[in-house]
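Wed. Picked up where I left off yesterday with EamA domain-containing protein. The coffee machine is broken again, so keeping this brief.
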Amino acid sequence: MRFTLPSPPPILALLLSMLSIQGGAAFAKTLFPTLGAAGTTALRVTLAALLLSLVFRPRLRALSPAAWRAVIPYGVALGLMNLTFYLSLTRLPLGLAVTLEFVGPLVLSLALSRRLQDLVWVALAALGIVLIAPHGGAGGHLDLLGAGLALTAGAFWALYILVGGAVGRRVPGVTGVVAGMIVAATVTLPFGIAQAGATLLVPGVLLAGLAVAVLSSALPYSLEMAALRALPARVFGVLMSLEPAIAALSGLLFLHERLSALQWLAMLCVIAASAGISLSGERQVVEAEPAN
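Structure written out below (tokens, as returned):
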């Protein structure tokens, strides 16, 4: 028996998905003092893999070797994307980390574009990154290692999108997604065990990890599927561009992380560039959610 959620209106479903993901990321950050970033990543991804396996019951044994050749890089990209993103959160506010991570799929969209006018969006995104870059004064000082980790997560996000297309073509239904999550759990679990050890098995910690897994994976995945069935790719891409702002608001509300006016301006530049490329390109890349 398959589990299905009632389908809200598609735009509301997508907004709820983003709120769930960023709220989950904010909650995950509160677990860092107990588990560390690697431990939190491993717990979240492993529990998400178990939860999705129980809900969707994928037929993994039926997958062909060719299908696994597509699924494995997809799962590795998913696992390393989550790991590097959570590591970036140890050094950056949530809003800035998501903004920098967003550069990955944005650059991919621009690389696949064939329109000269999209150079405007390149310049706007570059301006956003320059505004975030280290400087003194009211904007504060950006942690370079944290920024590098967030950009690395963005690169893995772009790879996740590219290899996800092959998974979608070769593996039917949700089986590829669940198989990829299992591979991601296999990738992240050794890092989590090395950092958190037996703390991962404490009942209270497991319950908190389950909440993160639901908020960051199971619930938003179901909501996004409902939105994707009803929304054009361009509309989906533009709405997804709001995610850095939602992340910043989640960081403010749940973690009391404040951004400077210059950092908000930088974020708006990246959001505008992402929305612009979603609307203008002949070839659209729908920004698949990484479940951060």
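Quick read: The longest helix spans residues 203-230.
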